[in-house]
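pipeline/complex-builder :: batch 7 item 3
reading input block
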Amino acid sequence: MQLETASILEHRDYGSGYRLLRLAAPQIAPQVQPGQFVHLRVPRLEASVLRRPFSIFRAENGVVTLLYKAVGHGTSVLSAATSGEPVSLIGPLGNGFPLDLPAGRVPVLVAGGYGMAALYLVARRLAVPGLVFVGGRSAPDILCVEDFEALGWQVHVATEDGSRGVRGWVTVPLDAWLAEGRAGRTPEFYACGPNSMLEVIGQRALAHDWRAWLSVDRHMGCGVGACLTCVVKLKDADGTWLWARSCKEGPVFESRQIHWDRAEEEA
Amino acid sequence: MSAPDLSITLAGIRMKNPVMVASGTFGYGPEYADLVDLSQLGAMVVKGISTEPWQGNQTPRTVEVASGLINAIGLQNPGAEGFLQTYLPFLRNYDVPVIVNIWGRTVEEYAAVAARLSAAEGIAALELNVSCPNIKEGSKSFGSNADMFRRVIAATRAVTKLPLIPKLAPDVFRIAEFARLAEAEGADALAIANSVPAMAIDIETRRPKLANITGGLSGPAIRPIAVRLVWEAAKAVQIPIIGMGGIYTAADAVEFFIAGASAVAVGTANFLEPATPLTVAAGLRDYLARHQLGSVRELVGTLAC
């Protein structure tokens, strides 16, 4: 973890309201593990007291690349930042996805919306290619398919309106693949997306005693484990639960660790 | 003229500079240690500790508002034993006074945690959280009820020789009255002020933005409130005051010193820029030099009016 003043190399539209932000961050970039994030101070975000967490799309050659959608005030202001502008980052943060894939297992990535960007480094760093299942509301919400295909991964798309891939949630093509016998291989899931999607993927894995690594998305404060804003419930040995910090012990948890709590998902 | 001297002695505690971190904003030490040299802090004030581990509130626990943050963490902490075993040994690797913020649900719990921590080596002082707005089981009344306030200070005073620093609630009718009570019960210094009770509402769902409904507002939004509270209290007591509330720059800190604070604490600003306490200390040195002041003491309580 480091505090680094990065410099904007490129900041452009990526289609469908998404923005691609490339940052020269020679200290942070080489340390990035798949699934980690940076805590970014949005330039000129007046009256704001918090940084904003961004999952990392790519990290190579001293460059950290983020892919985000302007959904709130912070990201709207960030959209206006231009090349050459300094941007303060803290990172890389969080535990990231484990990459010690047991022999014989096929990696299966499951993404909802821009969760796809956060999974790209998993595909990049795993030795063997696998499958990607991605879901979104409509065709424009499906990102980065070509990036995964270029790495030799097989991508299955689902959209709620049927404008790309099969119609329905991401579980439609996933369940079809599972029903067809998954080529006789045991999947290891890596998922990033809405909490409701993560819970469903966790259930699929639990039903067969497979492992599912889920990257949870929580409202975040300090990003380094001090403020205890982003806590998530994990199962305790005695059947109760205890808090874990999604910025520190997470954001990636194995599905069996997570104590799902309906009220918590509203967060 | 030689460089101004930033070092102070507050309640018998030697500090390299008068800029501390505020409880709850710097964890227990390890969280920011990769980013900030803890030895350069005036003092490390750790997040509130109770006798037993405590889970705190449900989520959402914080919400950002204009120039501020409302929090309702609910004092989640590892308990006295957890702190002593896991965090105090880590903190002792640094050349920094460790001040432990403590709280309880009853007067007896305050005394118990104070006694337990006093038996450990390496703690410089205890800050009494008598004013956390986020605990429903009575803690609130310790800060705003004069009798409860006096009893909790007296009970902790009876069990510890460590300097005691009550952290005062901002939402009392007359803060000077509480400052005097604390001084009379043997407090060594005062921390002014805690976060300000506040709330925020999602107008689409009409639900509160915090699971706890209400929380404590911190950040630049409360700074003028805190400056005034420090000024009122400083006129009423002889014991030193640690001023806090929305300090982001040296200029912010200087206001507190002029109002009567002998030291300051940086809180919410740490979340945005973890090195803020260090930049505030450096800027304070520049200010003192520019005004031909040899030490912070020469600035304390110098409001011209």
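note: Residues 195-208 of chain A form the longest helix (14 residues).
queue -> next item
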